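Next comes this protein:
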Amino acid sequence: GAAYPEVMKALTGSPSTIVRISEKGEQVVSVAVPIQRFRAVLGVLMLSTEGDIDKIVAAERKAILRVFGIAALVTALMSLLLASTIANPLRRLAAAAVRVRRGVKSREEIPDFSDRQDEIGNLSVAVRDMTNALYARIDAIESFAADVSHELKNPLTSLRSAVETLPLAKSEASRERLLEVIQHDVRRLDRLITDISDASRLDAELAREDADSVDLKKFITDLVAVSREASGHKKPVDIRLHVADLPAGSKGYRVSGHELRLGQVITNLIENARSFVPEEHGVVSISLARKGNSNVITIDDNGPGIRPDAVERIFERFYTDRPSSEAFGQNSGLGLSISRQIVEAHGGTLTAGNIPADKPGEVLGARFTIVLPGEL
């Protein structure tokens, strides 16, 4: 055994292992272990293999190749499955979004994967809703532009006619009447442009600004006080305010919103009611109450009320149904439309109707109702 280096190393007291190639070209693993007694080396035991190592290595390589082939096949099948269930739907959604962006004359339909209960289905629903909202907004903009063009054309036509006629006026009285018409049309155009600008930037302004916590009780009390002070140079009106007691456990009449815009709504409704009440003994009643988790604001007047066919039409853009005592052109017809838009942006509703009476057909006045969700 002295011819084997592993045996000679084991004689020193340390086990030794060596791998060599036999004369047949086979790999041989040899292990030599010292045999000791009281740390004295009495001999060496050497074990070696012949031929088995190459067979084992070859068998393991074949097993690895089989596992690799199966893994490659499974990966290919999974890739095809993922491509059909994820990549292709995403590609179709992306292509449809590009067509929507580039489409001018046609309306593109977004692929519907809403039957899938996964992220692709949720994405499909979100993209379809967004596209429908986009088309609805485009239609609203086109309709608004057409209405604006129509409303601006009327005073412009009157203004042009008055300007063209002014040099032909033969008397001072005729010239003064034409100048009054010109001034009236200019003021009307100014009101229209101001209200149109306010309506067009309303959505962006509400989305950009952060909402604050508004105490409706204090807020409406201050607005009513300002409206009462304004009665000195307007039609005298008795403006009354009633705030109902809060239910047990309520934290107060608080809403999350934009104070300036909510004030615009309430002030507009108060002034609208002021214009319809009688010249004498006019009354505008404002009440604030809690119903469930909602704050309900009602504004009543003792005017002629609202015609049944105009209950919803009064919220249309540029629709005007003013009292006969009011001069023509004093109202743009956008106030109630903007008010409803503001309330709906706050998650609430604005509706109109008449105060219910005891007798059929009797009208006690108009009633506007604002419902705003309260803070939790």
